[in-house]
Amino acid sequence: MSFDTMLPLLLSTPVAQQPPSLPLEFTGGLGLSSKTIGLMLSLQGLYSMLAQLFLFPVVASRFGSVKTFRFVLFVWPMLYVAVPYLILLPDRFQLAGVYFCLLWRITAQVLAYPSHAILLTNSAPSMLVLGVINGVAASTASLMRAFGPTLSGIIYTAGLKVGCAGLVFWVSGLVSVLGAVESLWVGQTGGRMDEQEASAAASDGDEELINPLAVDAAIIAARGLKPGSTALTMCDQNHNQR
Q1: Phi, psi values for residue 164, rounded to 5°
Q2: pLDDT tens by residue, 121-141
Q3: Which of these, 59, 108, 164, 185, has the minimum number of CB atoms within 10 Å of its CB?
Q4: What is the value of pTM for the model shown?
């Protein structure tokens, strides 16, 4: 959420006049026009759609949801560290650097979000609680969408005041590092319990699917035999032998 909010601000902020003091003290932005920023956002939306359709299925089928999700989380902090230094690139390389970071970010997002959704669904112990789990996850994401941009804006403003334009990105990178470490405890479940119980119940039901006594009674009824007859007695004996 913070990256989506802060990157357009960094791109539109005017270029700083004072020289940077590396490695951390530099301010300003790239000073790009609204037209250029809009074009970049449009292209990233197009690439996101294509990558979602063609890239994610290949990667997920090759490496699995857990490895894909974990890889993205460990790569994402490096993006947060690198983005502020786009300001320091020579003018002729800045646009190329921005497009590279956008490509990096969209690829990571395309791989992370579906993997997270798959892991979240598989973590439900039963279909009865799947709605609750997804509801809590959606509510938490909405909460972060509400407070994330506000908090990021406050940190970005504070960073500009102290001459550190990359402060908000580096703080976000630190948070993403914590999430990456936490992903080491994420595992792939073997299936929900309700599916296992349903499979076991189906197996038990197959054994009693045909009742021998009911079959014998149907045969007797079809032949017009009365209860208590010799044939019915023989059928009962056959059933007891079974």
Answers
A1: -135, 90
A2: 888 787 888 888 888 888 888
A3: 185
A4: 0.70
